[in-house]
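Appendix B. Raw example, untouched.
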Amino acid sequence: MKRTLEEQRIEFSNQKFLATPIIGLIVWTIIGISGVFFSNFITVWTIFIETGSIVCFRFISLKIYR
């Protein structure tokens, strides 16, 4: 099935992009809380792990909400 570029653009613009900002907000809140309550070592590892997992969380949330 071939779609024109205009059809693909319309389909792309109709998608919901709310999952990524919400997940980013949650992840950065966790990072902020870890910065207040834990040592620098734990906070650095939290930043490393959480920022790398935002994309994974987004794909998981898209599967849940569809």
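End of appendix B.
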